[in-house]
Structures are given as C-alpha cells and as structure tokens.
Amino acid sequence: MALDSRVPKGPIKDKWTDYKNHINLVNPANKRHIDVIVVGTGLAGGSAAATLAELGYNVKAFAYQDSPRRAHSIAAQGGINAAKNYQGDGDSTYRLFYDTVKGGDYRSREANVYRLAEVSANIIDQCVAQGVPFARDYGGLLDNRSFGGVLVSRTFYAKGQTGQQLLLGAYSAMNRQIARGKIEMFNRHEMLDVVKVDGKARGIIARNLITGEIERHSAHAVVIATGGYGNVYFLSTNAMGSNATAAWKIHKKGAYFANPCYTQIHPTCIPRSGDYQSKLTLMSESLRNDGRIWVPKNIEDVKAIREGSKKPTDLSEDERDYYLERRYPAFGNLVPRDVASRAAKERCDAGYGVNATGEAVYLDFAAAIERYGKEQAKIHNIKNASAEKIYELGQAIVEAKYGNLFQMYEKIVDQNPYKTPMMIYPAVHYTMGGVWVDYNLMTTIPGCYCIGEANFSDHGANRLGASALMQGLADGYFVLPYTIGDYLADDIRTGKIPTDTPEFDEVEKEVKDRIDFFVNNKGTKSVDYFHKRLGKVMWDKVGMARNAQGLTEAMAEIKAIREEFWKEVKVPGSANEMNTELEKAGRVADFLELGELFAKDALVREESCGGHFREESAEESGPQKGEAKRNDKDFAFVSAWEYKGEPADAVLHKEELEFKDIELKQRSYK
Amino acid sequence: MNLTLKIWRQKDASAKGQMVDYKVTDISEHMSFLEMMDVLNEQLVNSGEEPVAFDHDCREGICGMCSMYINGEAHGPDRGITTCQLHMRMFKDGDTITIEPFRAAAFPVIKDLVVDRMAFERIQQAGGYISVNTSGNTQDANSIPISKHAADEAMDAATCIGCGACVATCKNSSAMLFVGAKVSQYALLPQGQIEAADRVKNMVAQMDLEGFGNCTNTGACEVECPKGISLDNIARMNRELMKANL
Ligand SMILES: Cc1cc2nc3c(=O)[nH]c(=O)nc-3n(C[C@H](O)[C@H](O)[C@H](O)COP(=O)(O)OP(=O)(O)OC[C@H]3O[C@@H](n4cnc5c(N)ncnc54)[C@H](O)[C@@H]3O)c2cc1C
Ligand code: SF4
Ligand code: FES
Fold first, then answer.
1. What is the spatial distance between Cα A526 and Cα B102, in angstroms, rounded to a whole number?
2. What residues in A contact B139, CB-CB < 8 Å?
3. For residue A242, with 0-12 CB atoms within 10 Å meaning exposed, 13-18 middle and 19 or more buried, which class applies?
4. What torsion, rounded to 10 degrees, do the Cα atoms A228, A234, A240, A246 define?
5. Hey, how many other C-beta atoms are within 10 angstroms of the C-beta on B26?
6. Which of A442, A544, B26, B95 sees the fewest Cβ atoms within 10 Å?
7. Does B170 have pLDDT greater than 70?
8. Mean pLDDT across A157-163
9. What are the backbone dihedrals phi and psi of residue B142, each rounded to the nearest 5 degrees, phi first?
10. For the segment A613-656, what is each residue's pLDDT rounded down to a tens digit?
11. Would you state the pLDDT for residue A24?
C-alpha cells in the first residue's frame, strides 16, 4: 500500500484553514447517530473525548486506571508551549514551528508541525477558560518560562505540576459530558484488540480489569490515545502501567508503526541507585533555567567526592567543568535534551561521574540562589544584606519556582538540594516514534485514528520540552474533532454497528486464547524477570548510543528472550478476576515484539539524528566534532513498518519528508 | 532489613478477608515502600501464589493511586507523601508492618488492598467543572487577569490528587477535604463564578448521597493529606454553601 500523508496543497500558513473550509461536516442532528470509541484518557484522549461529546457524538472512553484523572499525563511537570508572544520577545507561529522542526532534527512532517504551532495559542485560552490555574505574575497576567532548545520564553506552567492541572482541566470537561450522558466512561478497562469490519475499524475487545470479563464494544471510528512505549526499557520515567498494547495490536491488524527507534532520553532524572529499582524519576527540565550543570575538572576530585572525603560545595568555581556552557555557549545549560543527555554520558564515560555508580552529574542552584537573593535585597531595599540574608531571600524565590521538585528530590535521595547540588543522569522518557498517521491523524486502518504520544507525527527525532502536552491537547481539542468529522460524514446512515458478528467472534477468540494460554502455562519465571532482561538489552544496545553490531545482537537476543517467555512465563491466579500479573504478561508480550522492531529500525537508519545516535555517524572534525551527523540525502524519510509476522520480517515503507518552508541545516546549538 | 508483613488479603468484593503474615528479607533502606512490595510479590509469584493486588501507577506521588493503610496510617508513617514516596529508611530491621486497604463505607474493597473510589468520580461529575464549550473559540487568556495570590491559592487547592487518604483517615469517613479543595479552586477564580452556587450544592449533595460522613473538625485529614490541602478549604466550601442557600 502506498503511503499517502494527505497533506493539503497550498502555502503552509493556509493549509489548515483551507482544509477546514473544505471538509465534509456532519450535521449536528446526525452526530447523535454516530459512536466513537476513545481508548486512553490522558491529555490527548481526555480532550478528544470531551470535545467529540461536546460536538454531539456518542463517546465511549476507556482507561486502565480507576479514573481518567490518573492517566500518565498527570505526571508532566515543566509546562506547555504556546506561541502567544505575551513576553514580547519575538515569538510567533513561525518561530515555534521552526524551533520544533529544528529541535526534532528535521525528521517531522512540516505541515503537521505548522498546524500545531498555529493552534497552540488557542490551547492556553481554552485551558484558562476551564479554570486551569496557570502561574501568574503580579499584574495578574500569565507568566512564562523557557525550555531547552529555544531562545524565547513561551512555556506556560502551573508550578511543577503542569500536566496535572491540564489533565484535570480535560478531566473536568469530560466529567461534564459524562454527567450529560454523552460520554460513557469505562474505567479499569483495557483494550486488548481492535475489530475490523470490511477493512474499517469498527470496535474493540476490552477486558474489565475488575471482573476479568471480555467485552465487545462497537463504534463507527476508534481513536487510540494510549501514550508512549518507553517502558519497553523496563526502567523509564513512565508510569508503571504505561504500555504499547493498543498501538501494537492495531499495528498487527494493519496500522503501520513509524520511527520506533526515536526515543527521548531525558537529561535531568534522578540517577538509579540499585537493582531493585522499579522506575526512574524525572526532575523537570525547567530546572535547567536556573541550575548549572557540572562535573569536577580534575579526576582526583571525582575520586575524593565518591569516597566522601570531599563535598561538591568544597570545589571552587574554577575546579568545576561546566561542560554545557563550555561546549555550547549560545544555549549553555538550555541545549535540547538529546544534546544535554549525550554530553552527560560523554563526561561519565570519561570517568567524571560523581556518584558511586559513576552515572551522575551535578545540577547546581547555588549561583541562582545568590543571584535571586541579591535581586530581592535590591527590590526590598535591604542595604548591606548579609550572605545568609541573601541566601534566605534567594532560596525563597527558588522554592516558589521549583519547591515541589526539590521536595520530591529530597524524599527520594535524602539530601537537601538547597544546600548541596542535585545529582542527575539521563533516563528514558518519551517516545517520538509511534503509530503512523496521515494529516488527518488517521492510521493506515480506515476509521482508526491515533493521537498524542501514541502517534509519531510532530516531534521528529527529538522532542523539545513542553511540546508533548501541547501536541496532546492540540490533537484532542482542535485537530481530531475536525478531521474525524470528514470521515464520519459517510457514516450517518450506517446505523449501530452490531457486535454479534463473525468479526467480533474471531477477535474475541484470539484475545481469550491468549489469556487462557497465560493462566494455564506451567512456566517457572515471573513476567518481571523477562521485562527486566528485555530492558537491559534495550538500554545496553539500543539506548543512548547505538551501533550496527550491537543492534544486530539486540535483535537476536530479544527474539531469544521472547521465545523463552512464551515457554517459561508463569502467571498465577485466574482469568476471571482482577489479576495484575496477567495484565503485565500481555503488555510485556507486546514489548517483546516491539523491542525487536525498534532495534531493526535503528539498524536501518544509518545516520544520527535527535534521539537516535548511531556511533558510526558522528562529525569527525571541525567545530561540530563529536556531534550527531545527519544524512539528509539518504534518510530524510519517516520509516513506516508494515507487520508481516515476526518483527524481523516487517516491511519498510518510506514517507519522504519535504522541507519547503524550512531549510535543512546542520543543527547547531554552539 | 528483614521484615514481617501483615497484609489484608481478600479475594474479591464479596469474599471475607483476613490478615496474612509474610516475611521479606534483604530489603534495602533506599527502596520505596512499593519496591518492597514488588520484592514480596516476586517472591509470591515464584512460589506459585497470587501476588498481593495493590493500586499504583506513576510512582512519583502525583497520580493518587497508591492507597494503602500502613501501621494504622494512610500512606504510612511519613508526612506529606503518598505510599510510593515512602522509603524503607523509615523502618527498622525486624519491624512488623501492618498493611490494609483504605477503609470507608463509600470505598468498597475490590481485592486485597485495591478499593473502589468511584464515589469521588460521581462527586466531580455532579459539578466539578466549568461549563465552557471546548471549541477553542474562548477569549484570549490574558483578558481574564487573575491576581497572583488568587491564582496561587487556587493552585494549592487544585493540587489534590484524589487519593482518598482524607476519607480513610477520618473517623467519620468524611470527604469534605477532597470536595472542599475542588470547590475552592473554582470559587477562587473568576471563571468559576457563574455556576458557583449550583456547583457547591450539587457536589455536596452527591457527597452526602455517596455515604461519606460529616466533618467534626478533628483535622486528621489535613494531617494525612499528601498534598497539604488545608482545612481552610472546608471552611470555604461551607461558606460557599451558605451563600448558595441564601
Ligand atoms: C515524568 C514526565 C514528565 C513530563 N513532563 C512534560 C512536560 O513538562 N511537558 C510536556 O510537554 N510533556 C511532558 N511529558 C510528556 C507528556 O506528559 C506525555 O507525552 C503526554 O502526557 C502523553 O499524553 P497522552 O494523552 O498521549 O498519553 P497518557 O497520558 O500516557 O495517557 C494514556 C492513556 O491511555 C490509557 N491506556 C493505555 N493503554 C490502554 C489500553 N490498552 N486500554 C485502555 N486504556 C489504555 C491509560 O489509561 C491513559 O488513560 C512528561 C512525561 C513524563 C513521563
Ligand atoms: S484532599 Fe488530600 S488526602 Fe484528600 S484526596 Fe485530596 S490529596 Fe488525597
Ligand atoms: S503511584 Fe502515583 S501517587 Fe503513588
């Protein structure tokens, strides 16, 4: 099947408007006759469900948690971008578009990104109207901060809990529709497969996680909004339940899977401390606005710190290597995530890591506290303020900005970050790859849409901070509600989709057989045992840096783990009850396939770009020495994989990327 | 550390539950409480037993799922945290730890430590929102100036994670801190005013319908709340309710 991105013709700035002017509409009275299933109620699914219901469609929404409010979006800390130019620092739709395309290392689709930048300002208006308590300045206007990879202040935030507040906004909009009966909410339900009728997505099979019952749900269209697949690494900043199951199941039923190898490794996470660890905790990137990143200059000091005979605060300014400021003077500590992550790894690999495992660098607030303290002393007209007073005043400002993050750090590490620098290290965070979608956000299965982190479209090979929330809400509030209407306009006479059909019978049987296999298999090893092994292969060979040999080995090793899994996995308990091991087994089974495709995709892409760093493809000389070397001539495409059985047999389709409005350039942050 | 755990096991909502003793060994003080539970569960799975079911997801104190009653306290002995943020350094080698589900008539047990908090959902559905159309045709955000103080206070109220610790810890199983927090958020913002009276009446009515008890100003909820939601929110809710009934 040829890939058609369905990008509208015409100048980029008019595409979306023209498109909206020409699509088919569904008459409000007819929307009542149309059902839509939305799987996932994070920012993307929650906003989509609320808006579709508002428009008049009958929505059935699904989430595996006990409430939409607990979707993983709740954990996003730093903020959400929008080209409002409230700060008057030169922001515009074009600049947000440009920064996002450049930040993604020129591997995203121009038209989608432009549309995202275009609707971004609306998102803030919408959320404020819903009562989202964004940070305000003293004049009562909205406050902004800056994130990595940009030179303007366009990030809106609600303390360090922006995702929480945005999600509660979408959740409240959903609640209003649930109360009106326009959304039927299925909490503690997991989608286990999609059902196609005449080639179109017409329903899903879901498991009620309380009773274990397998249910059939039909609709005229199915929207997948199930988030990212970072948990393929076992350790990541994602929630424990985050998974790829829905995305993978639609892939197996015909949806192409795009760019699986693009994974974001976030530079500012709490380093891991032991083998028992179940997840990694992110410290928001916004901390890099005020924190300076360094390691000791001298290896003796590193040793002394590790032994405990020196403290980081004992080292003077010139005994420290502020390596980001040294290497990237223009962006300094605010370089994009992929650049910051690799730079940390480079220092730690060279032996300068500051904790016991050698995998940590410092994030230091002393300078910011002093700077703010002095400023406050001036503002409050305190003459000859003592160092303590300045510190106290400065600390209050830092606390107001990042208090909850500092508290979180202290709870986990048991050290006070106001007094001693935080220790951070990169961790798997976000997946830029995902289900391939066209401009309408439709997958290669007609009637099956995919939005939010689960799709691939807007971030290219690297996502800039504060743009996932923006994309999730743009897709859900403002894009999908239009594009899906164009498709559903053909369905006003279809009537209810029956579920007592051979198509539903067949998929339900597949789902049940698999569950029966798990609960009856007489294996000897737990699901986690396999997940951890998969995670280790992924991190060691398909992690921050990759090479052909490692990737080839990874593919073989993952296949071997998968084969062993199907022989040896043990799932206690039964199918007809709440069974958390059974839930995990299904998710890990899917990760074991996705992981292999991931490695295969990384192997094919013989270039470095964004979150994909191929060791064979680095700049060898000149001012960019050691940086990622992209190859636009051969790799300016989206890889879209078609399922053919074993992941190793997947077939590659290329969507060639066109850059008409932005010139392809070396991505430099020097 | 080696520990004895006394855990509530209950097959499903209708089954009778009981406390069961387990031993775990080699627990590191750096582990979180839930990681310690993972160790136990791995042990149970390896011996072919059913692991202990408990709710959890984000493991960073924000989703509000990890409800557990530990040694007689919601979320355990530390203050201002959820169970996933509780660290084993709070315990000593040889300790016996009692682990039970949140207990309240309005939160029925589903299995082991997992309870049903749907009552909270229904309260929110009764009015915990602002009725604005999600069309994107709203006015420019800066045309609704909000004082920093009001925005900050609304934000403090809005940080409630819906965990239910307030209910679990209250001798009357009152949900007033939770409902008060939500009512306050909107009461403090100009956008929420038009529906204010209906909102508070409907939410409080639903709260009563769900079988939550009344507040007798004991203040235990505030002490156990992982997000430091203050009693002021209950006072504000009561004021809002009075105003609405005038
Ligand atoms: C710690 C952290 C901090 C972050 N900070 C920021 C930030 O500051 N700014 C920013 O822009 N981005 C940030 N991100 C990224 C951003 O939060 C996510 O990309 C985004 O929230 C994803 O939203 P979503 O709606 O696509 O998916 P999610 O919020 O993950 O929602 C997934 C939904 O799908 C449901 N689900 C999954 N599988 C199934 C299934 N099989 N059946 C039924 N339901 C299912 C879940 O129940 C859930 O409702 C952060 C991410 C993390 C991990
Ligand atoms: S008020 Fe506090 S204890 Fe109660 S649900 Fe909210 S966060 Fe939990
Ligand atoms: S697991 Fe999310 S708050 Fe504890």
1. 28
2. 125, 129
3. buried
4. 40
5. 8
6. B26
7. yes
8. 92
9. -75, 0
10. 999 999 888 888 888 899 999 999 999 999 999 999 999 999 99
11. 93
Residues 6+ positions from B152 with CB-CB distance below 8 Å: A133, A136
Q: Is the pLDDT of residue A209 over 90?
A: yes
How many Cβ contacts (< 8 angstroms) between chains A and B?
217
Best B63, B135, B183, B191 residue to mutate vs chain A (most A CBs within 10 Å): B63
Q: What is the mean pLDDT of chain A?
A: 95
pTM to 2 decimal places: 0.96
Six token digits for residue A150: 């940009």
Output the pLDDT for position A404: 80
A36-75 burial: b if 16+ Cβ within 10 Å, else e? bbbbbbbbbbbbbbbbbbbbbbbbbbbbbbbbbbbbbbbb
d(CA A296, CA A364): 12
- Of all protein residues, the one whose alpha carbon is nearest to atom 1 of ligand 2 is B178
C-alpha–C-alpha distance, residues B228 and B187, integer Å: 19
Q: Which of B128, B136, B161 sits opposite A478 (nearest CB)?
A: B136
Whole-number Cα distances in Å, A141 to A120, A135, A166? 18, 9, 18
Residue A498: Cβ within 10 Å count: 13
Please list every residue in chain A whose beta carbon sits closer than 8 Å to the beta carbon of residue B181.
none
Kindly give the pairing relationship between strand A35-39 and strand A221-224. parallel
C-alpha B24/C-alpha B40 separation (Å) is 6
Q: CA of B181 to nearest chain A CA: how many angstroms apart?
A: 13
Strand order in the sheet with A189-197: A189-197, A200-208, A214-218
Q: Which pLDDT score is estimated for A1?
A: 62
Q: Assess whether pLDDT exceeds 90 at residue A408.
A: no
- Please say whether the dihedral angle defined by the alpha carbons of residues A452, A454, A458 and A462, taken in this order, is positive or negative: positive
Q: Both tokens of residue A167?
A: 């999600």
For the cut 70, the answer to whether the pLDDT of residue B200 exceeds it is: yes
Q: Are A567 and A621 in contact (CB under 8 A)?
A: no
Alpha-carbon torsion (A55, A59, A62, A63), positive or negative: positive
| The predicted structure's pLDDT at residue A146 | 82
Q: How far apart are CA A523 and CA B100, in angstroms?
A: 31
Q: Which residue has the higher pLDDT, A315 or A669?
A: A315
